[in-house]
């Protein structure tokens, strides 16, 4: 990586030099950032949004705070989760990360 930056710094800066290679290099950096960082993050956010919208009663979930539970009631922006026998917690839908079955399938 340092060789790329040193190559840019050591490039001759004569009046005959065309600025096109510099713009191409900058464009290449932007494209790499988009495909390796921005696009996958947008895809994950879209999947999480569709998962949260598709929640149903009985689904096992994990919250952002690390609480495991089972969905007992769903409203517009909140979800009621049973975390133990007869212990119900109402949380915001944005606090739901994923379902519990994904973790058990990995083990």
Which key terms come to mind for this protein?
107 residues, SH3 type barrels, 3 helices, rod-shaped, alpha+beta
Please, could you describe this protein's structure?
By secondary structure, the chain is an alpha+beta fold. The protein folds into two domains: 19-53; 56-106, SH3 type barrels (Roll), CATH 2.30.30.30. The chain has three helices and five strands. It has helices at 2-9, 20-53, 101-106; strands at 60-63, 68-74, 78-84, 87-92, 96-99. Strands 4-3-2-1-5 form a five-stranded antiparallel β-sheet.
Concise description?
This protein is α+β, with helices and mostly antiparallel strands. Helices cover 45% and strands 26% of the residues. The chain is built from 3 helices and 5 strands.
Helices and strands in order:
Layout: H1 2-9, H2 20-53, E1 60-63, E2 68-74, E3 78-84, E4 87-92, E5 96-99, H3 101-106
Antiparallel strand pairs: 1-2, 1-5, 2-3, 3-4
Stretches with pLDDT under 50, minimum 5 residues: none
Assess the beta-strand content as a share of residues: 25-35%
Count up the domains: 2
* CATH class call of the largest domain: Mainly Beta
Order of helices and strands: HHEEEEEH
Assigned CATH architecture of the largest domain: Roll
Question: Largest sheet, order of strands side by side?
Answer: 4-3-2-1-5
The tally of strands reads 5
Query: What would you report as the Rg, rounded to the nearest angstrom?
Result: 24 Å
Q: What kind of sheet is the major sheet? A: 5 strands, antiparallel
Q: Mean pLDDT score, rounded?
A: 84
Termini distance?
A: 37 Å
CATH topology of the largest domain: SH3 type barrels
Q: So what's the overall shape? A: rod-shaped
How helical, in percent, are the residues?
A: 40-55%
Number of distinct helices: 3
Give the helix/strand class. alpha+beta
